[in-house]
Write a structure and sequence with these properties.
Number of domains: 1
Strand order of the largest sheet: 2-1-3-4-5
Helix content: 40-55%
Strand content: 5-15%
Largest sheet: 5 strands, parallel
Order of helices and strands: EHEHEHEHEHH
Shape: globular
Length: 163
């Protein structure tokens, strides 16, 4: 996907989030949806976050997936900067297992929405699928690939295991 214009921007608060967010990029690769990924912290790199989010739309980004742990400020900061849809992925943490991250994301003030997914890898995968569903509203090719994925996924659980 490196040669195609990215449609989805993935931003994570730390390089350590990559292990979890690889679930997003693997899903997007499987659906042949080009993306870009960056590690920037709302607290340690605020100016770079503003620059990245401010220019996302002009780079062709249509949806942003933002991952963060602990204070989990990154998705909200990004959502405050851009009108693009922002999907938040709370990271698991040592303190509260990610509940702290989840609560930080879902407590956004009215007017600055962050669509928040599950904590951890399931949330990362679902963020990619939700971003694909958003894109599929205006892209028939993505729609067809998403329908094919969902059909294949459903077929894997449609039968009872043989005893």
């Amino acid at each position: 996907m490196a040669n195609d214009t990215p449609l989805i921007g993935i931003i994570m608060g730390s390089k350590s989030d990559w292990e979890t967010m690889k679930s997003s990029t693997d899903m997007l690769d499987a659906l042949f949806i080009p993306f870009e990924a960056k590690a920037l912290s709302a607290h340690r790199n605020p100016h770079q976050v503003v620059e990245w989010a401010s220019n996302a739309e002009s780079r062709g980004i249509k949806v942003i997936i933002a991952a963060a742990g602990m204070a989990a400020a990154l998705p909200g900061v990004v959502a405050a900067i851009t009108p693009l849809p922002v999907l938040g992925v709370p990271m698991e943490t040592r303190v509260m297992g990610g509940v702290d991250s989840l609560l930080s994301m879902v407590q956004m003030p009215g007017g600055i929405p962050v669509g928040t997914l599950a904590v951890g890898k399931a949330g990362a995968k679902n963020a990619a699928l939700l971003a694909a569903a958003i894109l599929s509203l205006s892209d028939e090719n993505i729609h067809e690939r998403l329908v094919k994925f969902r059909k294949a996924q459903n077929e894997t659980v449609a039968e009872l295991p043989v005893s």
